[in-house]
Specification:
TIM Barrel, alpha/beta, Arc Repressor Mutant, subunit A, 2 domains, binds iron/sulfur cluster, globular, nine-stranded mixed sheet, about 400 residues
């Protein structure tokens, strides 16, 4: 196993620290989709996966492995549509990362669209080492799926969950979209009942948002889709939160709900502001430099440019000074509703001054947006249930805290 050391990552305990969060992770961006969903503004390629995609990721990994501390505690495939990759290509990708260094028991997660999943595919993923699948179910209601312009219907979503579970992949999550016009409390309850009955252990719930220049904007403008009502949406999200909690899911992040032991380790790595290597076109990477500064890299989103030279593709780098890096780490860390963020520990890791952030955190506490994590002697802070609904305003305030002292 290759061992690289860079920056000031927490002590490596086989790639996962004592708090069960990976000390470093790898993200692979798979940019392909079969079609564009009308609400989506991601940078994607509407075509079949290039045959050379896995080899190109391998070339990028070989060129950039020195940017991360290994072994990695998580490997995550996102997109686009990772399930659009043929299973042998996915297995090749996993082997390439494993050859550099995946911790024993590392989380290997894959985003998948229900229409791509059958028993054979799910078994191939399991054989390749996939431990977690997040299915883009969005809803178990065919009318909602039609509004969203999704390629699948509810029956395929149910079959996909069953296929993944039958293959022995223990961690199965679904993405839901909340706030679709015409949605009733009864419809949301039906979604939650369905996913609970199917044995789903993790839910990422997002509000439908109208992104500029998407086909959905044009469809609404010409009356082909009902308009979105933001006030009803906020109520719908609160109703969904309550329903999930009633069915035994804990909200452990602003958009994430989980049964015990089903939390996404890779997402926790992001909220803990730990380093990750992003491979593929459009991927982001983050590493901590000596002295506590943070280097963020955004690889070109142009698939053709990236394929032409994956190991040396164009990228934008941004270096955050330690104080700025601390503000970001706190804004992210507050989102972890179970663990929260330890300001002093983070400040020590980033070689930064924690006092600058105290006024913003105290204002957030006074508004009821931030609370102490109860079982930790008051060292850690997190967003409250109310703060989780207004996470953006808390983050804005924390990020703007320059030169403020108590
Ligand atoms: S499958 Fe996902 S990434 Fe692809 S177009 Fe639909 S929403 Fe966007």
């Amino acid at each position: 196993m290759t061992s690289y050391k860079l920056g000031t990552a927490p002590a490596v305990t086989r790639g996962v620290s004592a708090d069960d969060v990976p000390t470093s992770g790898v993200y692979v961006h798979v940019p392909y989709c079969r079609r564009r969903c009308p609400y989506c503004d991601f940078s994607i390629e509407i075509r079949r996966a290039d045959e050379g995609f896995a080899a190109a990721v391998g070339a990028e990994l070989a060129a950039r492995a020195g940017e991360l501390s290994w072994p990695a505690g998580s490997l995550s495939f996102g997109g686009g549509t990772p399930s659009a990759l043929p299973p042998p290509a996915l297995a090749e990708l996993i082997e390439q990362v494993r050859a550099v260094g995946l911790a024993p028991g590392a989380e290997i997660s894959l985003e998948a669209n229900p229409e791509d999943v059958d028993a054979e595919v799910a078994q191939a993923w399991r054989a390749a080492g996939v431990t977690r699948v997040s299915l883009g179910v969005q809803s178990f209601d065919d009318e909602v799926l039609a509004y969203l312009g999704r390629a699948h219907r509810a029956a395929q979503a149910r079959a996909a969950v069953a296929a993944v579970r039958a293959a022995g992949i223990g961690l199965v999550g679904v993405d839901l979209i909340v706030g679709v016009p015409g949605e009733s409390a009864g419809r949301l309850a039906k979604d939650v009942d369905e996913l609970a009955a199917l044995g789903v252990g993790h839910v990422s719930a997002y509000l439908l948002t109208l992104e500029p220049h998407t086909p959905l904007v044009r469809l609404i403008a010409r009356g082909a889709r009902r308009p979105i009502d933001e006030e009803t949406q906020a109520d719908a999200y609160q109703a969904m939160q309550a329903l999930l909690v009633e069915r035994g899911f804990a909200q452990y992040e602003v958009s994430s709900f989980s049964r015990a032991g089903h939390e996404s380790r890779h997402n926790r790595l992001y909220w803990a502001h730990r380093p990750y290597l992003g491979l593929g076109p459009g991927a982001h990477s983050m590493r901590v430099l000596e002295g506590g500064a943070v280097l963020r890299r955004h690889t070109t989103a142009s698939l053709s440019d990236w394929l032409a030279a994956p190991g040396a593709a164009a990228h934008d780098d941004e270096t955050l000074a330690p104080q700025h890096a601390l503000r970001e780490a706190v804004a992210f860390g507050l989102r972890d509703l179970a663990r929260g963020v330890d300001l002093d520990a983070l400040a020590a890791q980033r070689h930064a001054d924690p006092s600058e952030l105290l006024p913003a955190l105290e204002r957030a506490r006074a508004r009821g947006d931030v609370v102490d994590v109860l079982d930790d002697g008051g060292r850690r802070r997190r967003l409250s249930a109310q703060g989780a609904r207004f996470a953006d305003r808390v983050a804005r305030d924390v990020l703007a805290a320059r030169g403020e002292r108590e």
